[in-house]
Amino acid sequence: MKRIDEKLKGELIDSAKTAKESGMSLNEVFGEFAARTGLKRGSVRNIYYSLLKEAKSDENVKRRYFGDGELPVSEVVGFDNIEARALVKKILLGATFGKPVRRTISEMTDDPVTALRYQNKYRNMIRYDRDTVFDVMDEIRGEFGKCFDPYLPKLSPVGDTERLKDEINKLYDRIALSVRRENEALKKQNAILTAEIEKLKGVGGRSSPVKDYFG
After folding, report:
1. What average pLDDT does the segment 119-140 reach?
2. Which residues contact 11 (CB under 8 A, 6 or more apart)?
3. Whole domain around residue 86: which residue ranges?
4. What's the total number of domains in the chain?
5. Which is more confidently placed, 206 or 27?
6. Which of 24-28, 108-112, 155-159 has the lowest mean pLDDT?
């Protein structure tokens, strides 16, 4: 049982280490870890800070869980509700007017780590906080009359290309069929006119002015 506990502790610390890079707060890490293991969020939080406290006074514990680097001194700063809402609105506004999510984020920051935090936070909001996302969408519609819907299924670029090729081929076939029909109609009309001319040539015999005109 001790070995299982040690393994879980290691997984918890590893999750906390990557929280900053992934744009998650420690509270989010604690929540996900609790859901995965069946522990209570408060218990997970206590385990983390207990290990952190122990590592500050025990070099072996520090190396085992936190490595040789510096110990974290505080909780990773996450997004508050206002910041998260503003982030979602900026990205949805960009998408509403045709910008890919990554382009909108790149216009907000040129720091790769910050960009990753923004991207992950946006995805987390879309997945876990639909009420806020729907509220932001309604706000954008009220301001601009439309809003990109992140919950609609996205079409595959490959599928779009194949669909475009298919439509072009169908258009080509329709044009080709139309041209063939026009040519056939012109041939029939020409045959009729030729026959009429031949008839007119015979009117009045050799002295017919029609015969002289058409040679």
Report:
1. 91
2. 33
3. 81-144
4. 3
5. 27
6. 155-159
